[in-house]
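hey so i finally got around to running the thing on that chain from the lab meeting. sorry it took forever, my laptop kept dying and i had to restart like 3 times. anyway pasting the input first so we r on the same page abt which one it is
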Amino acid sequence: MSNKRVSTASARERAAAFPPYEMLDAVASGIAEADSKTRKLERLYHLTQKHSWDGPTVFGELIERYGEPGANMAPELREGLSRILTVLMWGELAAWNISADLALEIPDMDAKMAATAQVFDEARHFYVLRDYVTRLGPTPAIGGLPTRLLRKVLQAPTLAQKLVGMQLLFETNAVVMFRRIGQSEVCPILHELLPYFERDESRHVGLGVMYLPRLIERMSRLEAFRTARFQFECTMLLLTSGFTFHKDFELLGMDPRQMAERVSNMQDEIVQQMAEAHGSQILRAVLSPKGGVGPYIKDFVHPEKGLAQAPEWHQRVHAGITSAAHSLDRALS
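ok and heres what got predicted. didnt touch it at all, straight out
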């Protein structure tokens, strides 16, 4: 069935179920279901309104203050920055689409409000990044690996998988990337602009933390396995794609191991928060990067003392994987 038919079918199903009277249940009953966990989701919506910022105005003021993006930047550095920001830009567009899907599909009123608020954040992020990237220079096409990852999450068949892909993977990586690029001071505009993005993305993670456990609690064993497998497959795409950006990270003075550790810590904290609040059954559907072979993979990809200090066999295998990742990236383009 084509995407258009699926979209039409979904629209018909929503229309047939309208009005969704079940959304009034918590309000009408006034019982304990309207508890603190639900209220936290509602607060995410109001926090978004409170901390909303005007993207075009902020960006315009920074242009007036510092001039055009990349004005005094070496061509090689500008190209590396453009490659990284372009992937982040398309990631924001994907997150915009996914959060809109969640806002339409999530039945719980408070979670729907939080997802709706996120729609406007992601839209603002995309437009501001697009304006920056297009003014920086020619916008490069992204490789096949990040394209495959973005499409995989966009086409995820369940709400749980969309939440895992966006909140657990996209948002945590985006928070760390925005922070590191801003701290690199490669561009004064980004140094002041990206903290806005980071603050928004940090808040977005809350939707997954608070709503995903509700979905996992209702999963069958097979559904939980499929969700965990989806997370693993996305992580492998993300990891393989990362090999193609190592030189760009080095150009910008960004430490890949430091970023990997921060992302790993954030994701582990999220998983542990969900497990502590909702029980260990959460772990049947989501994986912590600090469990299993995760730490060994991190140490191989990003050796603690640097690749130059790693054994010769390690360097050879690493170079082979990097070459294979670039080849696969081109083949999938």
